[in-house]
Amino acid sequence: MNTQKLMGYDPQIQEAITKELQRQEQGLEMIPSENFVSLAVLEALGSVLTNKYSEGYIGKRYYGGCEYIDVIEGLAIERAKQLFGAEHVNVQPLSGAPMNIAVYFGLLEPGDTILGMDLSHGGHLTHGHPVTYMAKIFNFIRYKTNAKGKIDLDNLRDMAIEHKPKMILVGYSAYSREIEYEKIKAIADEVGAITMADVAHIGGLIAGKQMDNPVPIFDVVTTTTHKTLRGPRGGMIMCKEKFAKQIDKAVFPGLQGGPHENNIAAKAVAFKEALEPAFEEYAKQIKTNAKILERKFNEFGYTLCFGGTDNHLLLVDVFSSKGVTGKQAQNALDIAGITLNKNMIPDDPRSPMDPSGIRFGTPALTTRGMKEIEMEIIADWINEAIENWQDNTKLASIKSNVIELTKKFPLYPELS
Ligand SMILES: *Cc1c(COP(=O)(O)O)cnc(C)c1O
User: Fold this and answer.
1) Is the model's pTM score more than 0.85?
2) Who lines ligand 1 at CB under 6 A?
3) Is 344 helix (H, G, I), strand (E, B) or coil?
4) What CATH code would you report for 284-411?
5) What is the pLDDT of residues 147-189, one digit of tens each?
6) pLDDT tens digits, residue range 54-102?
7) Within the chain, which residue ranges are assigned CATH 3.90.1150.10?
8) Is 229 exposed, middle or buried (0-12, 13-18, 19+ CB in 10 A)?
9) Of the residues 35, 303, 332, 362, which has the maximum number of CB atoms within 10 A of its CB?
10) Is the domain covering 42-274 a CATH 3.40.640.10 domain?
């Protein structure tokens, strides 16, 4: 086997990694689904566990030599249970999309109806977007948010009674409000539907006790581990004991083969971190920082979708507010060193490739240690960049300010 280190053996890849590290260090990362993991998480990810096959579950593996793998997967599961109060946990899903697919196949039959949120109101691709294969297999129907930006529970109940879904699905990637799990569970009970919450975005805020936890209430809860939960890229399914067998069989052998145990070890490390009191402080600061952005963007005269935020993200209608499209705003901010994404707003009259809105959030900046004062400054820069989206000199000057600011919040000094 090759005995050289990456630097000596493959300078092309090494150079791209180094440049990516620099990009992460010198920019303001405001994509709300992104975060920065600890060195301990990185170490577990890059460990020899990647060499091992371990199809099956603890004590019931198809391969020999799994005694340490079982310890690792057991720790990941125990810590996740403690973090969320879950009855059963499967930590094997390779990412968010396969975790949701496993739940659909585990608990439903092809053709069954799933009632989920309209995608332009904050739902996710994996909740039956027409471009996904799941939309060909299951019958997805949609509820929406009301004019006040809250989930329209009357509409949800009417649709549930009319369509008798097998599953009611909540959990979103662009919705910024708290979710009334108890009320939705009551509607599901009325029509005999399974309840599923996909808390991919807010898993860390729930673990950090800053948002309501659906795990005790809902039948199944899925989350990614790489967003606010600040672990490696991956997914996890939590469910009531009565669904445990169906969920486990759906993940393996239904959908996946060998689990990625390096990734599961990194999940375990991230869960240990999330159990520390400091993680609650982190989750609280994420929300405090988002509230500063909310106030500033209100002051600047933007329309905030859903009326503002209860979590880590904001969806802002830049087109109706400033006559700048989501794509124009995203491009201008890229030049200014601030990374976020264009996004559809509820019932967006514009196209998905150039929608009316931008979506941004605070988890990654908060990990770097940025607080209220920095949020005030950054909000000013974002507004300036949008208002001057065609002025490259202005955008370049914002970028040099961005680089100066990031120097005060070193990211991975050990790696540079
Ligand atoms: C991010 C996300 C997913 C999918 O996660 P991937 O890891 O990108 O596959 C699923 N559901 C929601 C609500 C998400 O925000």
Assistant:
1) yes
2) 33, 95-97, 100, 124, 126, 171-173, 198, 200-201, 224
3) coil
4) 3.90.1150.10
5) 888 999 999 999 999 999 999 999 999 999 999 999 999 999 9
6) 999 999 999 999 999 999 999 999 999 999 999 999 999 999 999 999 9
7) 284-411
8) buried
9) 362
10) yes
